[in-house]
Design brief:
This protein has eleven helices and no strands. By secondary structure, the protein is mostly helical.
């Protein structure tokens, strides 16, 4: 208990004192996880809409892959992304390995199945009848998509929150593709693992406290947006 209290105190002192390394790691965590979440939303939401509304022959197979992807092990993602970005890999010429971009790509791969599967489930709850009613009222395809997204906005926001939660707490893939390089690819999760391995438990607790507050704060903002729409 004493270590926990001291860790919380150290977290507050590091933030209030403006420790440059802590703020750098925190800002990089927000940038990497936020970018990965945005990328997963750009890919996952259209995929979820397609799976929910457009029947095709291979649909059961794709849906099963999306559902299975919700439990995709981060270390497996890190391994495959590393192989793709390795010097002699297909994308090795881009020189992205051990960069924040590689971390964004790996985290986006982890979050995309979550966003796709949960958004698909939310849109499927509307049913085919809602789509037919919207089209019968003379809505264009773009208007129909917008109206259906609006109707399922609570589920879609929940999908976004789930995607963000998956990437902000991820450590395995980030460590493998980012390398936990100080001043370059170190984020809160990988920094916490490093401090634990060094035996600096108070610093590790401080970093974990900052990570928890960060994750809760962003999720709280998304929840306020979700519930405000619900009250309307």
């Amino acid at each position: 208990m004493r270590i926990l209290v001291q860790g919380c105190r150290q977290a507050l002192s590091l933030l209030l004192a403006g420790d440059p390394e802590i703020w750098e790691i925190t800002c990089r965590t927000v940038a990497v996880s936020g970018s990965a979440t945005a990328l997963s939303v750009l890919v996952g939401l259209p995929l979820g809409f397609m799976l929910a509304m457009r029947p095709f022959r291979a649909r059961p197979l794709v849906v099963s892959w999306a559902n299975a992807g919700m439990g995709l092990p981060p270390v497996v993602v890190g391994l495959w992304v590393s192989l793709m970005l390795w010097r002699y890999g297909p994308l090795g010429r881009l020189g992205l390995l051990y960069t924040p971009v590689a971390m964004v790509l790996a985290q986006a791969v982890i979050a995309t199945p979550l966003v796709a599967a949960l958004s698909m489930a939310g849109l499927q709850q509307l049913g085919e009848r809602v789509k037919l009613q919207i089209m019968a009222l003379g809505a264009s395809p773009v208007q129909a998509v917008w109206l259906m997204v609006r109707e399922a906005r609570y589920s879609l926001l929940a999908a976004v929150m789930a995607g963000f939660g998956a990437v902000v707490s991820e450590v395995g893939a980030s460590m493998m593709v980012g390398g936990n390089i100080r001043g370059h690819t170190r984020v809160l999760t990988t920094a916490t693992v490093l401090e634990v391995s060094k035996g600096n438990f108070e610093v590790a607790i401080a970093l974990s406290f900052i990570l928890l507050v960060l994750a809760w704060g962003i999720t709280f903002l998304l929840t306020v947006l979700q519930q405000r729409n619900y009250r309307r």
